[in-house]
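Posted in: Structural Biology > Protein-Ligand Complexes

Title: Requesting predicted complex, magnesium ion in pocket

I'd be grateful if someone could produce the 3D structure tokens for the following input. Sequence and ligand are given below.
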Amino acid sequence: MLTFENPAISFKNVTKKFGEHVILNDLSFDIARNKITTILGFSGAGKSTLLKHILGIIQPTSGKVFVLGQDLESLDKVQLREFRRNFGMLFQYAALFDSFTAEENVAFPLQEFTSLTKAQITEKVKDLLLSVGIKEESFKKLPSELSGGMRKRVGLARGLALSPGIMLYDEPTTGLDPITTKMVNNLIVETATIHKDREMTSVIISHDVKATLEISDYVAFLDRGTIIEYLPVSDFKNSTNPLVQEFLRL
Ligand SMILES: Nc1ncnc2c1ncn2[C@@H]1O[C@H](COP(=O)(O)OP(=O)(O)O)[C@@H](O)[C@H]1O
Ligand SMILES: [Mg+2]
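-- Reply #1 --
Done. Output follows.
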């Protein structure tokens, strides 16, 4: 098992049960700072559940989750809400607000969580959208008027609005065509590396093996609530674990 000094995220003996059903089984592992870590696994393995523990959306039945050294369970509701500013999140379908334009979507977290003026928000939104490759002519378009790839870009710009130290991606390329998939993967790498002057830890939940091998620094394989392999990407390709090998052949 990989261990890191001063990890971004740390699971310590985390078990999660829904009723009698054990979803995460005594999970202990670290996620490195400023790296791209992908958690692979078959559907139903517990990947999204794991991600929700990182966000503090759900709590372990037993064990602890530390994010940036902070024990999430020691935070009250208000502190947790504030703490979530450390996270940017890109969901499978970008999860934009349908009735908001591209720029309104990106402005939303800035209006909710900062005391920036209207003019400052306009300026910041413009920078963010341009940085993910959305041109000004599309700023006032609704999500329904944007392509799947452009919606992803807008979703990413919104995720980056509060300058999070940790970006979380849940199945970012599932359901996308190959070209858009490549674009999103490039965007993830650019996002992780462009902000060299500050922290950017990326955690990706995925079952896209090819993309994972191309863009990750570290890869964990989650199977029925247990991490059965966790290696630097170059070693992961040579894993001798039969389940991992099966997955790699898909
Ligand atoms: N809120 C919940 N209540 C009960 N069971 C759940 C809940 N969330 C997830 N599960 C179950 O946990 C298992 C893992 O789900 P999930 O974490 O979504 O897997 P993955 O993202 O790897 O596909 C599934 O069997 C799912 O039905
Ligand atoms: Mg999932």
